[in-house]
Amino acid sequence: MNNSVSKFVETVRHFSSAEQREVLARLWTEQAGRNANETWKTVKFGENLRVTAYEPAQEPYLEELREALQNGVLARLENQEEGTFEIYAANRTFYVTLTVEREFAGLLSSWLPENPPREINLEGAR
Amino acid sequence: MSVLADAEIRRLMKFLRGQIADTEKLAFIEDELRGEFGAEYLRESEMVSYFPNKTIEVSMPETIWKLRIISYTRMRMTQRGISDEEIIRLFEKFLRFCADENQIITVGAYTIFGKASPRSLPLTLRIDVDEIDENESQAHTITIFVGRGDARQTVEINLIS
Questions:
Q1: CB–CB contacts below 8 A, A to B
Q2: Is residue B135 one of the residues assigned to a domain?
């Protein structure tokens, strides 16, 4: 294996699950995305797509989200009941509620790929 | 397509009766919530706007935290019968855990998994920390749901189709 690839793999091994997802999502080819499973899928919307931000702080990112969803982008289902997905655009990851039937995306949060959510497990904490 | 449970609709309608005076509007909303796309209708901006933001103060020894519960989270709390107290307890546990583990809280997104009390259901609380300050720090909730997200198959993906 090429030395730089080995270094990369070794680095990724030490990432948290959220960090690993950020990397893997951006390595996926379009072809692989089309053959994805129920959790990972490529989503693509047409001109009728409606996007909204549930938080004013997220409004500056709406156009980037719209563009990604209309161009087609890799998404990971986070919670079936809630309809929440992580949307992996080129330069930003969006946390949204997605309603395919209503062509609607509600933006809840977003972050840069190098700064994904930190996962804190309080099981067993006092 | 997703149908809401009867208990969820009852909780939502009880809350909405305190927010909306127009009985025709209330009847329309109830019809939508009971329909086959009730869960999807609930996520629409207009529906979410009926659930006001609320800021809760949490005092810790080193700083005061202002935790803003956004409209979307309040809607989910109402739907699922999750109280302010459960949110506060989970948030306090998170702050204590970080202090005990010497984990420095920084600006950014957090996914917190735990129980508000030993007998309560496991919850996932997602928050964004907005500001860290010596005297007063700020965060806001994103959402809360029962159990964990669909974490399986999220890292072990097949890159070769």
A1: 134
A2: yes
pLDDT in tens, B105-130: 999 999 999 988 888 889 999 999 99
Tell me the two tokens of residue A121: 């497990």
**B108·A117 Cβ contact <8 A:** yes
Instruction: Please indicate whether, in this complex, the C-beta atoms of A83 and B44 are within 8 angstroms of each other.
Output: no
> What tens digit of pLDDT does each residue of B6-49 get?
999 999 999 999 999 999 999 999 999 999 989 999 999 999 99
pTM: 0.86
Total domains in chain B come to: 2
Check CB contact under 8 Å for A109 and B109: yes
* Position B43 in a domain: yes
Chain A residues closer than 8 Å to B45 by CB: 52, 54, 106
Whether residue B1 is contained in a domain is answered as no
CB neighbour list of residue A9: distance below 8 Å, 6 or more residues apart: A1
B51 CB near a chain A CB, below 8 Å?
A: no
Kindly report, residue by residue over B69-106, the tens digit of the pLDDT: 999 999 999 999 999 999 999 999 999 999 999 999 99
Residue B97 near residue A122, CB atoms below 8 Å: yes
ipTM (interface pTM): 0.87
Structural domain for B139, as ranges: 54-158
Residues B107, B128, single domain; the answer is yes
Q: Is B39 on the interface with A (CB under 8 A)?
A: yes
Is residue A55 within 8 Å of A33, Cβ to Cβ?
no
Residue B112 lies in a domain: yes
CA dihedral B110, B113, B115, B120 (to 10 degrees): 120
